[in-house]
Amino acid sequence: MFIAYLLFLVEIATVLLAAVLLLRWWPRAGKAKAPTLQIEDLGKRYEERAIQLWNQRLPKKEARRRRKELKKAQQERARKTGGSCIYVLDFQGDIRASAVTSLRQLIDAILAARQEQDQVAIRLESGGGMVNAYGLAAAQLLRLREAGLPVTVLVDQVAASGGYLMAAVAQRIVASPFALIGSIGVIAQVPNFHRWLKEHNVDFEQFTAGKYKRTVTLFGENSDEGREKLRQELAEIHLQFQELIARYRPQLDLEQVATGEAWLGEKALQLGLVDELASSDAWLQRAAEHSRVLLLRLDAKPGLAQKLGLKARQAWDGLWTPPLP
């Protein structure tokens, strides 16, 4: 672990040196551009691809007939829906829930433009991370729910721990059969270098005000009292996690599901952790048959300094984050 840490420091120093040199020679490289909203009509995407296939494999008359039928269906759908639509957002979660920055801006736009009968679908992928970060992400989805917009979370691979904390806020959760769901629990892991420092005659001194300002440390000698205090804090967070789940999914048996375990989609459906089994692609394609489905993205163009900072942060997170099961 210590060698990996030293290698990480060398990597960061190299990146920072390269950044300083490049920014000095090319000042504009460090400037970020304001993100722009990108909107794609998924229904049109599906239809355009169908038309391409018809044009290639069907006789001209048959392809033309199908195009006309498709156009009539589009007009009928627009008449029935009255302009309402399903907004689709993507959330790719990391340990810091970094995607919450763009998520909150997209939700701002939806709330400003919403109409009656509009809905929101979130394609969510996350194995969890920092408690406060995922609490904020869940609060963003709660804004939609409180505004009267039905929210559906679509999970193709994983919604665990903080990821499930977010998903639970939605009125409906749809997961693919082999998605990993649950992990309603809390974990803290801290490496400790105290014995290594002691063997090398290195003193570590830490000064705090407040009995529990720092319970466990990286370099100091941890006490049983400090460890027990950390366990108590984790238990309190776990309790709040369960209270949120109980508020929005009261049908769950928390004694059964709030054990920190995660289950595949089929079992998660049986336990009530999800409401339906389907891939996000299948769900959205069906939705596009009766509603307008708009995919919203922010086209952010970070400056060089931001890119380098992100790379450094990802390297650091990768050093301390264990691989998902």
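The record above closes out task 2.4. Task 2.5 opens with a second protein, given below.
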Amino acid sequence: MIVAISISPSGADETGGVAAGVAEAVQVIRDSGLPCETNSMFTNIEGEWDEVMAVVKQAVFKVAESSPRVGLVLKADLRAGHDHGELSAKVERLEEHLA
């Protein structure tokens, strides 16, 4: 499965930014060892249901240590027979259609 998540603290810094809180969540995800990638809006994580959801929970609770309220947006893609390597394979299939 692939999960796209966005975790954000409720409070911002003096510039309105939330990068420090987001970085806490991303660090937890990267430290998990699961395949992942981060873009300007989401972090994508690939793995089995239980391991991915455990990492999501850990990342949310990490941000909650420094913020009284945390927002989570989660989108999941579950596809039988496509268990690993889909972070890049999905993009490769798309690019084939664009060529």
